[in-house]
Structures are given as C-alpha cells and as structure tokens.
Input
Amino acid sequence: MQDPLEIQPEPLTALDRFWLETARTAAKESVSALEEAAKQLIAITSLVQGIYFAAISFGDIKKALQQFALAWQWAIVGALVLPLVCWLVALFFATRVFVPRAYATNLDSPDLARETYEQVIAFKHTQLRRAHVALVLGFVPLIVNILLFWRL
Output
C-alpha cells in the first residue's frame, strides 16, 4: 500500500516538455549567444570610435583651444578623450569574452561538468556586462562634450 504522505510526481504535459526542451536549448546555446553579443558590441564600439575620431579630426580643435588658458586646454582635451577611454575599456572587456581559459572538470561527473559550464557562462557574462556598461558610460561624457563644446 502507498504511503498517503508520499508525493507522487505528475506526468509531464506537452507544455511542460516544451519548456524543458526550450531551457535545454537555451543552456546549450548560451556560450555562442554571449560570444555573438560580444562581437556586436565590438562592432558598435569600433563604429562609434571611428565616427568620434572623424568628428574630432574635422573639427578645428587646435585653433579653438588656443583661446583658453593652459589648464583649461588640458581639461578640455581630457574631456574629449574620456569617451574614447570608456570605449577602449568596453573593447577590452568585450574581447575578454573570447579569451580561452583552462577549467578543471571531470566529464564523468555531471555535477562538475555543470559547475564548469556555469563558470564559463558566468565569466563571459560578467565580461560582456562590463563591456556594455563601459560602452554606455562613454556616451555620458560625449553628450556633455557636445553640450559644452558646441561652439568651439
């Protein structure tokens, strides 16, 4: 006879099986999804840097800077370089998504294999998140520069 307190598993419905399979597929594809996102972030950051360099190159910054005292000149140059620094940091972290790392695992142990896979995903996700933050932070001084130096 069955113990009345024992919980009996319910059979999986088609919808349950769908969600389990979706989760399995997402787990399998997570590394490539993170790497694809890093590639896109690298492309966007490179494009933004290129546009910014072109805008600074065609601007008459040197002539405009001469009207300010030396301390202000350095401050303005620093403000103009700050977005580039942020975007270089973004490129640094985005490229770290692709850096090969050695992970100790035992392929005969599902728990160790899962832990290793989770470590890989966590590392890549952290680097990608840092790159995204740096990219976005680069737009803050860019907007400030546009507003402050519109007439230079």
Observations:
- The first helix runs from residue 14 to 58.
- The chain has a mean pLDDT of 86.
